[in-house]
Specification:
This is DUF2652 domain-containing protein. The chain is α+β, with helices and mostly antiparallel strands and about 180 residues long. It contains 5 helices and 8 strands. The protein has one domain: Alpha-Beta Plaits (2-Layer Sandwich), CATH 3.30.70.1230.
Length: about 180
């Protein structure tokens, strides 16, 4: 059986750091409101560049079929998302008179995957999807707010090597972790 729906593309997963503690320490209605606002902000800032496959708790599974991804374009989108997320946290903290101890991390991966429908849901399938989720639980980052660009993404993107050499944590088996304070 041959699947003609297999394509190459980017998997982007923005995920909240500190989410479990947040859920346990925040009233149900307040927490749900804050998470809904933050996820909506990330979706709005995306500007339809990425499609949404799933939203699960504090993470969004974005994807984009793209045979020639751009490191620079993705970095700009991540910075816009991160800035909008932080601005929304400040705004919500002020309006709700509370401290919101959440930060944002991103996984950027590349590979081959397929898509299928179940009712009105679109599901992604493939090794690339599993690998991206495994990268979320990496334990490698030294700061909670970062972007992890997988080797697969870096090898398949058109990028300038100078962008990848300054202020990054290079992990040969995984990829590059770039802390937001260092993203240009």
């Amino acid at each position: 059986m041959k699947n003609t729906n297999i394509q190459e593309g980017i998997i982007l997963i923005p995920d909240f750091s500190g989410f479990t503690e947040f859920v346990f320490n925040t009233k149900l209605y307040t927490g749900e409101y804050i998470v809904r606002q933050l996820l909506s902000t990330l979706i709005d800032v995306n500007g339809r560049y990425f499609e949404i496959s799933e939203i699960e708790g504090d993470a969004i599974l974005f994807y984009r079929y793209d045979e020639n991804p751009s490191y620079q374009n993705i970095s700009k989108i991540l910075m816009k998302m991160r800035n909008a997320f932080n601005k929304k946290i400040e705004e919500l903290s002020r309006s709700l008179s509370t401290t919101i101890a959440l930060s944002l991390k991103f996984i950027v991966h590349y590979g081959t995957f397929s898509q299928y429908n179940i009712g009105s849901f679109r599901k992604l399938y493939g090794k690339t999807i599993v690998e991206a989720h495994q990268l979320l639980k990496n334990g490698l980052a030294e700061q909670p707010s970062y972007a992890l660009f997988s080797n697969s993404f870096l090898e398949n993107s058109n990028n300038q090597e100078t962008d990848l050499n300054k202020d990054k944590l290079r992990l040969p088996e995984v990829g590059v972790i770039q802390y937001f304070e260092n993203i240009n």
